[in-house]
Please model this.
Amino acid sequence: MTAPLELLAGRGTDLLVRIVTVACSDRELPRMAEELAGLVVRSARALTFCDVYVLAEDGRVLEWSGPPVPLGEGEVGRVAAHGRARPHADGRGAAIPVHSEGTVIAVMDVRSAGPAPPEDLALVTALAGLFAPVLCSCRRLRTAREREHAAERFAERAVQAQEAERSRLSREIHDGIAQRLASLGFHLSAAERALPEHHPEGLAQIMMARRLCELAAAETRAAIGGLRPPVLDDLGLSAALATLAREAGDGPGPSGPLDVTVTVEGELEDALPDHVQTALYRIAQEAVGNCLRHASASCVDLLLEHFHDRVRVKVTDDGTGFPVRDVLARGGRFAQGGPGAPARPDSYGLRGMRERAELLGGRVSVTSRPGAGTTVEAVIPIPGRHRGAVSPS
Model:
């Protein structure tokens, strides 16, 4: 019998061109297996039918266009288990293993109308050797994408769990603390009216208690809104960021009014998944909150930028800035302060932003130095979109 490679060479360059064309295509399993099966039939002289069975990653079944075939069952299953070609009992074809690094990764099952010519079976054996690296690459790609999808689903569930907990806390605060503060304010008003006029000191204490109660109620309402902003669910990320900017600008900061501007650039074909919108909003919320609490800034620029495969949120302020390495030192401690130094109040928020982005396969970078303001940039990939690096270009 002619050696397999010599047999392929004897068929001319057309066959090799067809093999290279299929091998270099961007088809994935099971489409690639179907293309290879069609190539076998077109290349042989008498073969009329071919199926390519690919061993699943767990090594228990062979997958093809029909029901999975358990390893060791039927002709195809036995060929995969033992690694040897097996002619069909009627002589009209055979099941031929595809080996890669000494392991069977697939089986090619070919049939013909009459007795299968030996040269056709030799051709299939030769093609099996050429198909092995192609099928290996397809299997690896499928495994990688399955793991990527599993990671995306895990990230989505994690964000959903976090938001569900925030919603639960929001309801509990609203139905518990907020209601008791309202009741407390009512009773303080009643006590103020009932107190005789000749008790000015008692009246002053009640009025102070009322002011503290009103302040606590306002802070509670702000906490409820921060835990789950309704605008994010109702109108999406862009509107939620605009609302965040408006609320930050309305409240007087430590160094006076804060001017917050929002810019949205680019468009997306489809709406962002809810968990990605939530993550980006939380990162922007924390960054703007840090500007209000720590930066002594007067201006904040908030940029939302859409790309084909990723989204970027960038928050820049003109505040006092800080030494990034110190704030992000391990454990939230100052690098120069040693183990006993206190944690920066904003270090946990910065690390929380990073962890939230990394959970979704993205990143957060912080640029700052004392006296030069701060920039927080988050880049998160869009699930299901082809991408390379997540850094914008």
About this structure: The domain at 4-150 is CATH 3.30.450.40 (Beta-Lactamase). The two ends are 57 Å apart (CA to CA). The chain has two domains: 4-150, 231-393.
